[in-house]
Amino acid sequence: MHRRLIPHFSAFSLLLGVLFLAASFTPSLIPRTSMMQGVLGGVVMALGYLAGRILELLWNAADMPVLHGGPRRVGFRLLWAMALALLAWSLWYGQTWQNDLRQRMRVEPVQDAHILQVLLITAVAFAVLFLVGHIVALFSSFVRHRLYRIMPERRANVLGFLVVALVLFVVTRDGLLDNVINFLDTTFETAQDLFASAPPGPTEARFVGSPDSLVDWEAMGQPGRNFITSGPDAEAIAAFTGRPALDPIRVYVGRANADTPQERAELALDELKRLGAFDRKVLIVTSPTGTGWMDPGSHDPVEYMHDGDIATVAVQYSYMQSPFALMFETRTGLDQATATLAVIHDYWKTLPEDDRPRFYVHGLSLGAWSSMYATNLFRLVDDPIDGAFWAGPPFPSDFWNRVQNARNPGSPWIKPRIGRGSFIRYASRADDGSAGAAPWGDMRIMFLQYPSDAIVFFEPLSLFRKPVWMSEPPGDGVSPYLRFVPVVTQFQLALDMAVSTLVPPGYGHSYYSQDYIGPWVEVTAPENWTPEDTERLKKHCDNGFQAGCSNE
């Protein structure tokens, strides 16, 4: 009994774990810190060990011959020597690969102590996971031996497996739900604190949240208040363009401003009417990110382009960060975007065609997904919108996937060509989407995506299948050393998604003003705008990620 309590290593499984660990040092899309690489190494090594244990169990269950001598065999020792040599080689070159990727993204190289730190963190992470697995194995053994008393061994093994699986599911499910509920509670309390501590609202009638507004300032939430009170005014725009300008209209409705998606959408429409938004030349319906955040790097530049003769509207659907909103409030975002676009577009269609603003939709990240979902066939055919601009579209986006798979033969997955480019184009850090084999048609759709953005290019089936883009020449900011390794690559890309904004602007999921400007010019076609104006605006807005270009 006491021997069973002491963890026992399987030499074969540990060998497989070491091979997985060696593969984890290969680069993916985002540079890794010592902590990130160590945790990834520990997790992947544990997965390799688990895979080895499963293979051993299947081998034994099939009554396959057992090799005599085990780990003491010369051939087995040779395999271990080769595995350790591969690990040493991966450790050595892993630092070279990481520094190559860091140089491409203008990130500081790793320090000399990087390898030692990684090995220590890997060992700790693997030890913790191995201990958890050993506890599960002890529990499984306990259940099976109790069942042996009342039924045949084979039947007890199967039933024991099902009992352990059920117990683990219940325990982890309850723990997960507890954590989710606690997180939601904390998020809601944080939102309430924001409401209670809201600064004084604007007094001018032209602002949402003013005494004349239909939208309550305190319930709007911090992301909405920031959006409403930031951005360039008429004076700043005129100073830049040298032409007369208007104060841009910005409308934002917080989740707490009304009870249902439909009510929030109708409130947004009423506020647009109050401010005279349908008398402007351009109207943009934007879907925010999970927290309700609106990227100033996108919205500030387009207001300069149109001399402030523009209105932008957004409605919040969540308080949570986008990854959590994606997992736990998926329907909420889709329902809100659909209601917002339907209500505003249906009213817009009733206006005379020669006396209404040009209509565009926009979204970043999770906002792009919900905006695409809302922009269904009826918005594109029945009195269609004028265009759409979606940045960093998440990989589950159905519309984006259908467009990607309709790309011209021979065009790359990371930057496809669709037809002759008169309807849909792509932009990136190094390309503003202005090049097309044919001029733009009546409707213009643009995708902005970086080749190093795992949120865009994650492939759920990459556990055992190489993603399409990995078979193509590497894109801007992507390491040429990147290689596909079954299982390992899946976890590397999952980690990349989690840290995809922790890189300089222009890489990963860090979209910023410099790269919004060209696509906005292409999609909205501002009057009297020249390439020189584009370059001047880029310099004016050269403040980096999330900075905007309000009044510099």
Please report which band the strand proportion falls in: under 5%, 5-15%, 15-25%, 25-35%, 35-45% or over 45%.
Answer: 5-15%
How big is the Rg?
28 Å
Which regions contain 5 or more consecutive residues with pLDDT less than 50? none
Shape verdict: elongated
Q: Provide the residue-averaged pLDDT.
A: 87
> What proportion of the residues is helical, as a percent range?
40-55%
Biggest sheet character: 7 strands, parallel
Sheet/helix structural class: alpha/beta
Count of helices? Answer: 19
Seen as an oligomer or otherwise, the chain set is: single chain
The main sheet orders its strands as: 1-3-2-4-5-7-6
Can you put this structure into words, describing what you see?
- By secondary structure, this protein is α/β, with parallel strands linked by helices.
- Helix content is 51%, strand content 7%.
- It contains 19 helices and 7 strands.
- Strands 1-3-2-4-5-7-6 form a 7-stranded parallel sheet, with helices on both faces.
- Helix 10 links the parallel strand 2 and strand 3.
Describe, in short, the structure shown.
The protein is of the alpha/beta class. It is 51% helix and 7% strand.
Which secondary structure elements does this structure contain, and how are they paired or packed?
Elements: H1 2-5, H2 11-24, H3 34-61, H4 74-104, H5 114-148, H6 153-196, H7 222-229, H8 234-241, E1 249-253, H9 261-275, E2 282-287, H10 296-305, E3 310-315, H11 322-328, H12 330-349, E4 358-364, H13 366-374, H14 377-381, E5 387-391, H15 398-405, E6 424-427, E7 444-448, H16 454-457, H17 488-498, H18 513-524, H19 531-540
Parallel strand pairs: 1-3, 2-3, 2-4, 4-5, 5-7, 6-7
